[in-house]
């Protein structure tokens, strides 16, 4: 058994788990955060994306033990307890989700994309950056739209905040 | 239209839980004492089970029980069946082989379930599953449908000689032959409609809970139709009587048809829960989904279309072999027959049509309805043939179609369907305008200067949705009625719950269904809740597939709303001392027309429940139910045009532009309709360019059993889509709506392939048109192909 | 995944020690290939030795002509490194094209090289850049390092600590991805050294893993232009053939990608 001690959405979590426990299993089964989903076995679909120390990773391709000592943010903690995060709001506004299964991973990937690219985001970049997230419902059209809109709104908000 | 009523672009009510990670899917469910299961599956495509030894596995850590097919049979659990009877041309009923939820003697495809292992954790269950010893005697196999029919092919079920399930025909063969004999020109094609894996992002799952104190079962499962699941598991599989079986389909992560059917796993989990005394959960991993979800399509077809000297179609004859896999899934027989051949007239006046369909068993996963189901197969062959005919006849493909359009409605086709409304030319013109059809030659030239081959292709589709009139489908062999039910409960405080037998797994029913109520009573969206997916809550229902939730499900709600409205007006008239006929409902108030007298909606509702002052003889309460059985199918139609550029060096196709002009009748929420088209078109483009499902013909192993080998469309593979809609109202349902869920997947594949064959000037191309396939077609012009399925050809070559 | 034991090493020595005492150990860095393989029960190491907490094995340094990249440097870090983007822009771009953003945040150059997947990107670059692979025991020339599909010159317990190479005059990388897996189906790294010599590393196509296309190297050494490849043809007999691409198609792709890599070289 491995002793895993980490921060999930700002709260300390300490558990003993089998060494082979994946981070996504740990989050879903031991922390009862079921927002991260498991959609494939080959680390390709991205339904499980969370942030570890501020970077988007696939929680199905990391052991819980590897994450020990890290800060993990999941879809449940993205808005920090406040209103919707701008990316969440944009997904709703632009109908960027249908069945909702890929959505948590998609939104966590999107916030990471926006963080890395900021205002330089364009449609082609968003599409390329969604390489690791598969959606079967939306044809991506509205997801791309939502991410671009959220990026421009977040940039606007950041400018206002800076003034 | 109010801001939340019919036609409004209302953001979805259900989104909040999904975007915050609070959706509740089957695998998210945890109940006290719950244990995990893993199925031991056949690694062989066809084999006799010689011996099963689970002794060592049963002693492994955490193992609670390992159960087999004999025990299942001992407990009287029945065979999985196909619920639609098809009769062959000679009048004989279809030859259905036995499908045991856990195989007893013979396994017939890779993935066939043999044992269930229940353990404390999923990892322990998998460890033990690997330790189960099953000895097999391998048998000869066949994976390709045409080869399955050949003399001497391996016999898969004793009931189906030469693996033939049925040999069925629709239309007038003699008249069609005569018409073709008189034709001035005949276009002939060999068409392969490639097998697809549906790939809903949520893998299938089931949680079976047996309560011995009540002798009652609960099943959480990934279903598009929980009531149908309960009905079938009760009536046919003998799991439990309906009153002792509750089926809950909570949030379901996409279906596309694959979650209509009742699979072995939910039956076995329920049964295993009783056998082991613990709640049993099973969740598929992705490869298990690839192996065991019902696949889609898989037709090979010969087409002959005849034209007179003026380019009018005189007749159409098709001969199809449909691969149904190793077992007949729930609606597998209906898909290549009544959902397929009935659409062979397309948008065209065709005086004589004959379709022959032979359905066959092979050692592959069962095939059933997948988004579009039969209609994509019909559309693909028709629209490729029309495009090819235009090229052969030297006329513009758009104009050949236009010339042959049906223009008068109702129109009785020679293949059962009676089209009740449509205007195909409007869609054609809209699509041509949007893509600037006239400017294509210039764009092609410009692309040439960049070394790219540009092509344009179109497709005019019609589909039959809103399945379906119960009496009609009953006469054609359906085992169930295809009505829908609704109940509208007005609570004492005026809030409203709508209980529906439709099931939302991405379609946004919680929003669109509520819009109907907002429109009708002027109440805020927030005061309306849609309840679905639970057989203990919702009266009865037939579920969601075949683009039926709008046309059939909403119509049931409309009927129930009519009844509520009638009673509400009676109560209000009584309270306001007015004539019932003078009561109008507006903005949450019931008003006496032309006066300032009114009673708020909530007060009327309260009155209904206090029952202190109701009209004489009126029952208290305000709750009404309705069942709606449609009078006809609905007929969405449209025109899709695709423009591509092919890189001749690599064979890569890039979709530059995709235009969809649809007629869905009236639209409740345009935002959601657009989303449905986007998703459908993406799946159609996936079929056309990317998605190939390949079994090794020698071993029967699925070679494309994960995303490492099965290409799912990704964001970078797709363009933005340009959509438009026009409206001819469906004349027979109260909303005038037709349905929009499948159109995208139906109309797009031929448009894409027509564009590529136009670009590379070689019509010898099958789906999926992968870069390798296109590159080969480009560099092999005029070359002969002995096998139309390039993939099979490649495998054969690789195997040598 | 089969049961395994996770260890976190804080130094190379400790990592080697844990590995030596394990029945069937494996080193874990980003884990982006190892963990999926374990999840599918295709690999079953008894012990995993996590290297990522060892100091000093991460980062890029450019010192005059010499570029050195620590074994634990992630693909993301390689992609983002400003000095590398100037010294060897094609390599930085290549790193930004591996897998997907989430994989790039975890996957490392050392892990990729030690695994030597026949469709991985880095091996092609290392061959073309005539790189040296540094381990906790020795230095190995790239030409000697890649010994076959998933095979390297690494001995049991040997850890890739860094790679180094001399910056080149020009280099470019182009790949044609397997449409499903998105690994390279033909990935070509073309490099022209400052002495004018040319090395072409090809991944994703070879039956035996990454290889150098010497015919093209010779043609390009005398004429560094895409046109110089017109008369060259890849021998398809040594190429992989699978359901996604026949050997003949792969041979075509290698040539096309080589031309494009030369054209895009900077």
UniProtKB/TrEMBL annotation, chain A:
Keyword Iron-sulfur included in the entry's annotation: yes
Keyword Iron (UniProt): yes
Entry superkingdom: Bacteria
GO MF assignments: 2 iron, 2 sulfur cluster binding; metal ion binding; oxidoreductase activity
InterPro entries listed in its UniProt record: 2Fe-2S-bd, 2Fe-2S-bd_dom_sf, 2Fe-2S_ferredoxin-like_sf, 2Fe-2S_ferredoxin-type, Beta-grasp_dom_sf, Diverse_Oxidoreductases
PROSITE patterns hit by this protein: 2FE2S_FER_2
Pfam families found in the cross-reference section: Fer2, Fer2_2
Residue ranges constituting the 2Fe-2S ferredoxin-type domain according to the UniProt record: 2-78
Keywords assigned: 2Fe-2S, Iron, Iron-sulfur, Metal-binding, Oxidoreductase
Name assigned to this protein: Carbon monoxide dehydrogenase
Organism: Ahrensia marina
TrEMBL record, chain C:
UniProt-listed PROSITE patterns: FAD_PCMH (PS51387)
Protein species of origin: Ahrensia marina
Pfam families: FAD_binding_5
Name of the molecule in the record: Carbon monoxide dehydrogenase
Keywords of this entry: FAD, Flavoprotein, Oxidoreductase
InterPro entries recorded: CO_DH_flav_C, CO_DH_flav_C_dom_sf, Diverse_Substr_Oxidored, FAD-bd_PCMH, FAD-bd_PCMH-like_sf, FAD-bd_PCMH_sub1, FAD-bd_PCMH_sub2, Mopterin_DH_FAD-bd
GO molecular function term, any single one: oxidoreductase activity
Superkingdom as given in the UniProt entry: Bacteria
Domain (FAD-binding PCMH-type) ranges: 1-170
